[in-house]
Amino acid sequence: FDKMAKNHQDGLLEAMEQQQVSIAKAGVVASLPARCSLIAAANPRQGTYNMNKSVSENLNMAKPILSRFDLVFILRDRANSNLDEAVSSNIMKLYRKAPSQQEKTTMQQEQNPVNRSNNENVNRVPLVERLEWVNQN
Prior knowledge:
Elements: H1 6-18, E1 20-25, E2 28-33, H2 55-59, H3 63-67, H4 81-96, H5 101-111, H6 118-122, H7 127-130, H8 132-136
Antiparallel strand pairs: 1-2
């Protein structure tokens, strides 16, 4: 929402308040119905949320637009360099790590139905029995 131009915010306000969108192009003026749900996101003005200010002041959003939302959730990211480093290093390990030989073997066995254990096949019901009703109709 914070990246949106003011004139676009005004157009959105009309759609949210009156449930219609007015269009004036090439001499044609029309009002179209606009019934929809809206999910929006915005960043705080200075990059961090100030608990001493209102939501409207923090997000630099007009009160009439903010009042049209039924639910407003504030997600705060508290600065913690240790936690940020732990999360980012874990993500990097997940994507950098090449699968070990044991993991490769396990993945291949899971993908190949011939190598699956017999326990899985014992509990399976043949397709013909599961779809008996198809033959009856």
